Amino acid sequence: MPNVIIVSNRLPISVKKVEGKLExxxxxxxxxxxxxxYVTQKKNKWIGWPGIPDDDLTEKDKRVIVKELAKSNCYPxxxxxxxxxxxxxxxxxxxxxxxxxxxxxxxENYKRYWKSYREINALFTDVIVAIGEQNSTVxxxxxxxxxxxxxxxxxxxxxxxGFFLHIPFPAQKLFIKLPDAPSIIAGLLGADLVGFHTTxxxxxxxxxxxxxxxxxxxxxxxIIGSRVVRIAEFPMGIDYKKFQLAGSSLSAQRAVRALRKxxxxxxxxxxxxRLDPSKGIIERLKAYQELLKTSPRLHGKVILVMxxxxxxxxxxAYKRLKDKIDKLVSDINESYGTKTWEPIDYMxxxxxxxQLTALYRVADxxxxxxxxxxxxxxxxxxxxxxxxxxxxxxLSQTAGAANQRPTRKPF
Length: 411
Description:
Blueprint: E1 4-10, E2 13-18, E3 21-26, H1 30-35, E4 45-49, H2 59-70, E5 74-76, H3 81-100, H4 110-131, E6 137-141, H5 148-155, E7 160-164, H6 172-175, H7 181-188, E8 193-196, H8 199-207, E9 215-218, E10 221-224, E11 227-233, H9 240-244, H10 250-263, E12 267-274, H11 281-294, E13 302-309, H12 316-336, E14 344-348, H13 353-362, E15 365-368, H14 378-384, E16 392-395
Helix pairs in contact: 3-4, 4-5, 10-13, 11-12
């Protein structure tokens, strides 16, 4: 069997430098955790950025990082702070991310950002070629690397190349506004298989194929020259048993008891999100504010427990979002709170697994209302964490998970 090379912006292991010493720790994120089992097989490899600018590293540091990551079958792509600013914070997260989520995006520094995006995609391709084999199966992930399939196809025409997009893909009327939309489509069509979470994302992508006159759509296949590119849906899931059994550990049971003591008999509304404009955090807070305004009888009887995981704090739009959230949370607590009741328990942090699943287990309602979301695994984690307990899931129709229906075994 040929080896599998996973390629993503981030590795499942990150590096930081503390007081001159390198430290290695697990990366946070659905992609890293969802695919980490693949590199437990020694023949497989993972290529990605280790999470630290190379401006902060000496040549010796880089050698140490390469050697240490190789123990976990990981191979780093080093980037300078300027490349991170223009490729990651710039094109990837100020242009592509909002566009693919049907949100306003930045074009002020577009040419510089686009140049860096092309350079970094080429850099990733060079690393794939350097460590891969002619018959390697290469699995490229997400919006940061949409040019890699075509670049790799030019270098390794015999390789089997797959691409999976972890976020939505927009309709043509939106995507066509991107100046280099045809280049993105051409980049993706270097793959043999392009995967999405849902049929609606696949349909949007197929609609955009008309941007390339040389490509022909046949059902869910795209014919381009002598090649056929298959388009398919692969809804991402979770380790169900891991969440189902999470409450059995002593630490998890202690965490549940502590939360029940903390919140008493109040009905708990839980919101768990990464800090992001697409998650609808401001809109959700305003909805809760309206509930408190119109239903005084609920005062002191409900609490919104809001866990917001820090993300992309270097991007200006994310900094502005955090400031808005902080202010709105403060306004709501000041307007409606009392000496014995605070309407919102706001946590801007990430939590260990036991504490997160304890929150899932005690929550009466999971309030998950993204403006648009590729899948949203929190909805699945909440349900899996309550195998014997009741709860209510409020899920936005624009989350990919809303397109899936639970299946039940017949009695």
